[in-house]
């Protein structure tokens, strides 16, 4: 039976089924949790959870709380609780969710090295795509080196490199998109605790996932409007073509080839080329599919206006119920935030600003550079504020909260002025 209780009534041995917050506002991926240590209770308090529902069939009731210290904590329960109740019944994966996410280097320091790594990747991808177009073989050495430099950057600071993916070059779509998908995949892969070897395969596969598009006739590739069935069938072959390119290249792992081959497979089984379902899809390809979809949706294309980053994030959340591994999709949202870096937002104070830093524990509470006092008045000097700041000392309420994302053009805000410059 579900019973609503106050946080003060929560004791060891109870099973929490639901909280009074969306998972977006706290770092616990799912709401069900067996309380096995006092630290669990303290963490819930830290996130201002005040009311919750316990399941008395699965754990202790309010009147039956133990007087003693309770059962020994089992570290696996935490991982299993986090992974088990996925909406599509996905099996728990060997994902190291305990991977520490401490940043070794602050964002503003890492951003310069991140730009160098991004530029190197652009150069390598440009060359590789050119060679594929010309029917030449490709050499993996430079690509592996570029991927390793990106992995290094993400390990030093997970936000710097991914913040650079917000620049979308329309003219060079495939080449910029390839690097963006690589960066976003590596960022998610790191968050999921993949080891270095797996990250390398993921990075190479993601970087070259669309190389096969160079073999699709340009008239189809760049056609404005809807493709005919025949054209779409040809377009779909690009995954196979990409895998063939990698197959002919020395030093490429099977996992990297799987990313190229399977990046359009969908967790629910509706993708192509083979209609694979769930865990039959390689784990790295599941990751790349999310990164690919997000970057494509938020990029200007011949035939559609781009979604804003918050719209893209919302869509990824919706698709997590059908198309993606739901745990990976939720982690992706935690990586980028509900309001990714560069999003213009209006706060409940009427102030308008730009998200300049993501809070991975409280994704609705990033840091914001305030630019306008309200719709009509500019700030004399931009001010950075932290949305986790309380309304008053010891108050459980927050001083500022995001009310809505807004179009920066409507307020003549040049977002790039407030963010690190990108070298393309
Ligand atoms: Fe693709």
CATH second-level architecture of the largest domain:
Orthogonal Bundle
The CATH topology of the largest domain? Hypothetical protein af1432
What is the CA–CA distance across the termini?
58 Å
What best-fitting shape do the alpha-carbon axes yield?
globular
Please estimate the helix content: 25-40%
Helix and strand run: EEEHEHHHHHHHHHHHHHEEEEE
Strands ordered across the widest β-sheet: 8-7-6-5-9
Tell me about the biggest sheet? 5 strands, antiparallel
Radius of gyration: 23 Å
Total of helices: 14
Oligomeric composition of the shown chains:
single chain
> How many domains in all?
3
What is the arithmetic mean of pLDDT? 83
Low-confidence stretches: 64-100
CATH homologous superfamily heading of the largest domain: Hypothetical protein af1432
Structure ligands: fe (ii) ion
- Beta-strand level of the residues, as a percent range? 5-15%
Describe this structure in words.
It is a single chain. The chain has 424 residues and is α+β, with helices and mostly antiparallel strands. The protein has 3 domains: 2-83, no CATH class; 107-336, Hypothetical protein af1432 (Orthogonal Bundle); 344-418, no CATH class. It has helices spanning 38-46, 75-83, 107-133, 140-156, 160-163, 173-191, 196-207, 218-221, 229-236, 238-247, 254-262, 283-297, 309-319, 326-336; strands at 2-6, 15-19, 33-34, 51-55, 344-347, 352-357, 367-372, 378-386, 402-405. Strands 8-7-6-5-9 form a 5-stranded antiparallel β-sheet, with no helix packed on it. It has a 4-stranded antiparallel β-sheet with strand order 1-4-2-3. Strand 5 and strand 6 form a beta hairpin. Helix 7 crosses helix 11.
